[in-house]
Design a protein that fits this description.
Elements (H helix, E strand, L loop, with lengths): L7 H22 L2 H6 L6 H8 L4 E2 L15 H5 L3 E5 L8 E4 L6 E3 L5 E3 L5 E2 L3 E5 L2 E2 L5 E2 L5 H8 L4 E5 L20 E3 L4 E3 L5
Parallel strand pairs: 1-2, 1-7, 7-10, 10-11
Antiparallel strand pairs: 2-3, 3-6, 4-5, 8-9, 11-12
């Protein structure tokens, strides 16, 4: 883990800007067939893992984030899919059940989320979008800390980051509040980062 220093937030912000640029250009240059094929089927290592968990947490892609919803279509139809939900522009988030075809509303942070009266859920395994990652479980998110706080409050949930392969870096600068990932899924591979899988 990188030592906490006065310029660590600045380092993280500069890395976040660089990786957003990289992600944006990579996604924009994917041909139509590659876009349609990416994240559409569960990789073999994940199929069995997901079958062992009652509720899967995913996300509604925003901008050039990988769209994982098609990968979880069958889970969603069975009622075992949940998406992040923000009640207001506050630090905490929760998860609400959602099925493909149900309405998604614009949340207070601008992301699409289930309606306010959707049933609450506690996912056993969570797939979260990344801005950047390393192979040791380090992650860079949007910078709000919502997932880190949720992970800290629900340590038993498995944490799997989702990103394009070009978002990988050698080492993510980490603070004591950054919660490590158990694995990362890209369009090219499934990377196990910790010892919980």
């Amino acid at each position: 883990m990188t030592d906490l220093s006065a310029d660590l937030p600045l380092q993280k912000q500069q890395l976040r800007e660089k990786l957003r640029f990289r992600r944006r250009h990579f996604a924009a240059n994917l041909d139509g067939i590659a876009q349609l094929a990416a994240f559409r089927a569960l990789p073999a290592p994940l199929a069995g893992l997901i079958a062992d968990h009652a509720v899967v947490g995913a996300y509604a892609a925003w901008g050039d984030e990988p769209d994982v919803i098609p990968m979880f279509a069958a889970i969603g139809e069975a009622g075992a899919l949940a998406l992040p939900h923000h009640a207001a522009r506050i630090e905490t988030m929760d998860f609400r059940r959602w099925k493909p075809g149900e309405t998604l509303t614009k949340g207070p942070w601008g992301t699409r989320q289930p309606v306010d009266d959707a049933p609450s859920a506690l996912p056993d395994i969570i797939f979260c979008p990344l801005v950047g990652f390393d192979r040791h479980g380090g992650r860079i998110g949007q910078g709000g800390g919502h997932y880190d706080r949720y992970f800290a409050a629900h340590p038993a949930a498995l944490r799997i980051g989702v990103a394009w392969s070009v978002q990988e870096v050698d080492a993510v600068p980490r603070e004591s509040t950054d919660i490590a990932l158990d694995a990362v899924l890209t369009e090219q591979e499934f990377i196990v980062c910790g010892d919980r899988l």
